[in-house]
Amino acid sequence: MTTADAIVLIAYLAGMLALGIFYMRRNTSLKQMFAAGHQSPWWVAGLSGFMTMFSAGTFVVWGGLAYRSGLVAVAVNMSYGVAALLAGAFLAARWRRLGVDSPADYVRLRFGQSAVQLYLWVMMLFRLIGSGIALYALSVLLCVLVPLDPGHMLRDPDTGNLSVTFAVIGFGAVIVLYTMLGGLWAVLMTDVMQFIVLNLAVLITVILILMRIGGLEGFVERAPQGFFALTSDDYGWWFIAAWTVIHFFMIGAEWAFVQRFISVPTPADARRSAWLFGGLYLISPAFWLLPPMLYRAIDPNADPEQAYMLAAQAVLPAGMLGLVLAAMFSATASLISGQLNVFAGALTPMLTRGRDGIAEVRTGRLVTIGLGAFLTLVAAMIPLLGGAEKVIVAATSLLVVPLVAPSVWGFFSNRVDQRSAWLTVIAAGTVGLFLRYLITPSGPLGAVAGLRPLQSWAAEAGILIDVIVGVAVPMLVLGGYHLFSRRIAPGVARIAALPPAPETVPGGGASDAPRIVALTVGASGFLLWMSAITASAEDRMVLLITGAALAALALFAEWIGRRGARAVEQAEALT
């Protein structure tokens, strides 16, 4: 990584902190801090939800699969798009129509306080640990590119590079600070900025790689056999279908995504935000997974997990690699900031009963700092856990749908209640523990002869066990509870007693969104022009033309922003 790359990355981090400070003044109540005052434009919420699916692991895991197997990775990731479209059709508007300020409020009303405690502590623990793992993965990616001289205070003596611990602390501090200061507005708008940076970095990388290998024709000629098949032995259509179902529940009911549906002015806006999210994920995987796929034509023997970064290093001029690192940071920051904000939003009301708005916001910031410190500590301790993160990730995949499925059923069934929520989690956890750990050859029941057929099936099933536990068990428990329960759940009356959700109009931080887009796009165009100075003659023309297009787009976004600001001023004058 050159000095220019480091300057670009540092400038990007500074920009995110500046956004947090800018939106700090908006947070005068918990509704503003954790629900954006229900004033977020639908396209901002949609882009934010889209970015929440990303992390540094996305580039390692799915980038590695794209390098090895080609379009299979695209097909798997398109399942997120189908899931988001379905969530938009059936769930997004229902969340906004409730009129609650957080998904925890809905769970409390519909299923009771004990269900809130179950969902909050179990999901928060696993999600924060998962976020810590993502932060660690990001830091490892960066540190590989930053060699330091002997004696440097930030140098790891074992690797000769930047210390992963220092990188974890630095990145974690930036994410926690802008989330703590700016609340959900900062989370939403940094996600929009991250969307722009990610796609720009991928666009330039794709164009320059295609120029190196002779365009798409050269790529097709060099691709291995079966590279353009949509499925493989490990990722067949049944897996993709089950993956879609799992993510329908995740996108439709996991708190970080629900928060986006709640933040918009109207139920129709919530539906549009989910459809934007889904539409982007139907078309974008074929774009942002291209760099590792194309790099296969340059080096067929590379480490798949490093293929994304190697592709960027192979073609990008000075400064542009910093943009790719910024994009990877963006993806991880979006995941982490969303989790911090939603769980701080659930915890803060428990600690601030009877206080005024400013005191609530102050407590909310302290809670955000505490949660951020916890996940940063987890990230710093990953090397000491000896691989325990694999167990944590597996447990998360088994628990997500069992935790959120009762919330979805609660919209359509008036019989599922607090007991059904607990039964779902207990049943899924028991079956998952039995199939994945107890009957394995090294498990406590591995030597039981009568379990050998089941043990063999579980070994062959692999990820199918996650599907059975994560989807089939919750559906059977909730379906059976609905059929055999003879009483209406008490939470149904509490939900029905809620006053009609007031529709708001985009305002407050919403009027700033186009201008932030303009600033981000304009700064990116300027970076391309600066990078063109050191680029080859062939690459220089691409960078100059793309930079000019971004400058024009920035001017258009600024014009839109000025029109929106005038409209908001006129509306406020009339009221």
TrEMBL record:
Keywords, alphabetical: Cell membrane, Ion transport, Membrane, Sodium, Sodium transport, Transmembrane, Transmembrane helix, Transport
Membrane topology: Multi-pass membrane protein
InterPro entries: Na/Glc_symporter_sf, Na/solute_symporter, Sodium:Solute_Symporter_SSF
GO molecular function term, any single one: symporter activity
Places the protein is found: Cell membrane
Primary location group: membrane
A Pfam family assignment: SSF
One record GO biological process: sodium ion transport
Record-linked PROSITE patterns: NA_SOLUT_SYMP_3 (PS50283)
Gene3D superfamilies (UniProt xref): Sodium/glucose cotransporter
A GO-annotated cellular component: plasma membrane
Membrane-spanning intervals of the chain: 6-24, 44-65, 71-93, 118-148, 168-188, 195-215, 235-253, 274-295, 315-343, 364-385, 391-412, 421-439, 459-484, 516-535, 541-560
Family of this protein: Belongs to the sodium:solute symporter (SSF) (TC 2.A.21) family.
PANTHER family, sorted: LD47995P-RELATED (PTHR42985:SF40), SODIUM-COUPLED MONOCARBOXYLATE TRANSPORTER (PTHR42985)
Protein name listed in UniProt: Na+:solute symporter
Organism of derivation: Sphingomonas suaedae
